[in-house]
Amino acid sequence: MKNYFFLKFAICSVLLFIYCEWFNYYVVLFQCEWPSLEYVNPTSSKKNVQPVKFMVFTDTHLLGFRNGHWFDKLRREWQMYMTYKAALYLHAPELVFVLGDLTDEGYFCSPEEFDYHAKRFYKLFPMSKHTKVYVVAGNHDIGFHYSVTPYKNERFIKAFNASGVQLITERGNHFLMINSMALEGDGCSFCQTVERELLKIEKLLKCYNDSNVCPPNIKREKYSKPILMQHFPLYRHSDKACNEPDEAPVPLKNRVFKEKWDCLSKEATYQLIKQIKPRLVLSGHTHHGCTRPLPTNDGIEITFPSFSWRNKNNPSYGLFVVSPENYAFSKCMMPVESTVINIYIVGSSAIIMWCVYKYYRHKREMKYKYV
């Protein structure tokens, strides 16, 4: 009889574990769908061009060998792996963009450790023949501006195939990814490299927009205002004006941002907008969500929270559908860590109470049976 109750207890416990650690991700993410794209000109022949569907998340902060407990590392990596796996299965995006801080200790770890982190990143967030993954550097990957060395910058570029400036063009949509730490404006060597690349892209976009300013022998693409992606948010005073389900909690929401640390400087922000003229800016770094208009009021900036439970109890990612004329966005809320813990507590309590009830009921039945 004891073995029978133990078997029931074990089966119920395994089912609870499977739900929390596997099925729950599909149940929660199934509620998020691709947004509907509205065409600016319904009669345009460009409607026949298939829009691009892509997914965005940030700040995975894969733990290294110094910060965090092994169970903390296991728990958070499994959470991110299952979310990514479920998202790819349910949404099947063409492109995935990760906006920096892929690692937690990348800016000070050894070469061997960095290689290990890079391999682990692509093991958790793999590419496929249907999905391409693009990344940009964050301060935890190479350090804040004044701690970036040519070696740390180059090893990130080599490991993740992610240069300081990347222009990805897909069906007339231009995605521009920039290393935020290179926008200090102090003339450092890797800053100058990024500034030169930005100048080239500025001229290239002008060429796409107006054939009269094109140099000879250049292959022109369709022009559309680019989508800018980087780790740091553009300059803002604080997160006070943000109104999101994954926004920063009070009083952190009211904390004044430090330029070049919490966000880009005001000067770099206006220079970037002037050069690139983005229709949409996507960023991370703060670990909290925020949607706000661009300083020029010609588009919006969406800041995403950390993808990891270690930094955010209720993380999220973004789904975008874009055409050269327009875009649509859905924010997908991921499983909430505290909710999963509560499911474990309630489920475990219910299983124990049920087993105790069945056990004493059986004992009472056996007692009256032999009376």
Automatic annotation (TrEMBL):
One Pfam family in the UniProt entry: Metallophos
Annotated TM spans: 341-360
Domain of life: Eukaryota
Primary localization class, coarse: membrane
GO annotation, cellular component aspect: membrane
Gene3D superfamilies per record: 3.60.21.10
Cofactor section: Mn(2+)
Gene Ontology biological-process entries: GPI anchor biosynthetic process
Record lineage: Eukaryota, Metazoa, Ecdysozoa, Arthropoda, Hexapoda
Keyword terms, alphabetized: Hydrolase, Manganese, Membrane, Metal-binding, Transmembrane, Transmembrane helix
The name this protein goes by in its record: Metallophosphoesterase 1 isoform X1
InterPro entries in UniProt: Calcineurin-like_PHP, Metallo-depent_PP-like, PGAP5/Cdc1/Ted1
Metal-binding as UniProt keyword: yes
Family, as annotated: Belongs to the metallophosphoesterase superfamily. MPPE1 family.
Domain Calcineurin-like phosphoesterase residues, every copy: 53-288
UniProt GO molecular function: hydrolase activity; metal ion binding
Location(s) in or outside the cell: Membrane
